[in-house]
Design goal:
By secondary structure, the protein is of the alpha+beta class. The protein has ten helices and 13 strands. Strands 1, 4, 5, 8, 9, 10, 12 and 13 form an eight-stranded mixed β-sheet that branches. Strands 3-2-11-6-7 form a five-stranded mixed β-sheet. The protein is globular.
Length: about 325
């Protein structure tokens, strides 16, 4: 199948509510509170006020607040019904904590997310180690409501909090020879009990082409549902690439490496015939063991209900189709 798209449909956020002194100062104060470990009643009150002022998703009230201004990026806000927080936070794939969907929520409490650093290395002018606090204040936090499609055939709709990965990439200045970006997940057997199992090769590694990583929809996420990420969802910082199957969005990132060669990724190494490097959501390219033409929405569609149709690029074709113009998507799956 060939994709031809002549426009990109992108514009960068310029809304005054994102850059206003009031919102910026409030967000700065929030970061200070988070960094010092303070997450009491005052923080909760501030976050609730901010959420109502910006039209953000109400918090489920479980974790420390992390509000974001509602994104104005084209494609960043789907109007579909949100998946319930209890479902999004308890039905997870995070094999470092077990292979059953309920295992991460049971076992991820052992993950220690402070202190945390993310190392940027490889083909960049400015390699560096960023603390979590550095990353939180690198750019204004936005709320993006994305569809999430798993390669297993189920889906969710989740309000994430973060900012475009491109904001970080621009700071480190990739060299002209950089063509790909590799993402490495924490692999600590002391705090991640299934690291060392034979299911996958550890650490978990994922990768994108540089132009995919620079796409404005590619999100560096620190929160969901107006709160900091729960451990089982990839705390404290993860990737969200909404037009690709969920396993492409690396969790609990500790290293981002820029390279001139296509990274060898975890699932591609485990089963290359089943999990391609690109792994774009595509209803026309089936998994060898099941159809990808339909999907089941967690919390809404029962096992025996009529399944909904899978959308090309998970519904983001207008924003990302041009990245694959002329490519044979069955060959480069």
């Amino acid at each position: 199948m060939l994709i031809k798209t002549s426009h990109d449909g992108f514009s960068h956020p310029t809304s005054s509510d994102i850059t206003s002194p009031t919102v910026y100062a409030g967000r700065r104060d929030l970061i200070k509170l988070m960094a010092s470990g303070v997450a009491g009643a005052a923080l909760s009150t501030w976050a609730t006020r901010e959420a109502h002022a910006q039209g953000a998703t109400p918090r489920p009230g479980k974790g420390a607040a992390l509000p974001g201004a509602r994104s104005i990026l084209p494609g960043a806000i789907t109007m579909e019904k949100l998946t319930e927080y209890k479902d999004a936070s308890s039905y997870n794939n995070f094999y470092e904590f077990g292979t059953d969907k309920a295992d991460p929520a049971k076992n991820a409490h052992s993950l220690k997310t402070t202190p945390w650093t993310v190392e940027i290395e490889g083909l960049v002018k400015k390699p560096a180690k960023y603390t979590l606090e550095d990353l939180l204040k690198l750019s204004a936090q936005e709320e993006r409501i994305y569809r999430l499609r798993c390669v297993e055939g189920w889906s969710m709709v989740i309000p994430w909090v973060g900012y475009s990965l491109s904001e970080l990439i621009k700071r480190v200045e990739p060299l002209g020879s950089a063509k790909y970006v590799e993402f490495v997940t924490q692999a600590d057997p002391k705090t991640m009990p299934f690291v060392g199992s034979r299911v996958l090769e550890w650490p978990y590694v994922e990768g994108l082409r540089l132009d995919e990583a620079m796409n404005p929809l590619t999100l560096l996420s620190f929160g969901m549902y107006g709160e900091v990420l729960p451990n089982q969802s990839g705390a404290p910082v993860r990737l969200v690439v909404p037009w690709k199957y969920g396993f492409k969005s690396g969790k609990s990132l500790v290293k981002i490496r820029f390279t001139d060669k296509q990274p060898a990724t975890a699932w591609n190494k485990a089963a290359a015939s089943e999990y391609g490097f690109f792994s774009n959501v595509n209803p026309n390219v089936d998994h060898p063991r099941w159809s990808q033409a339909t999907e089941r929405r967690i919390g809404e569609d029962g096992l025996f209900a009529k399944k909904r149709k899978t959308l090309m690029f998970n519904g983001y074709e207008a924003q990302v189709g041009q990245l694959y113009a002329g490519m044979d998507l069955k060959k480069f799956f």
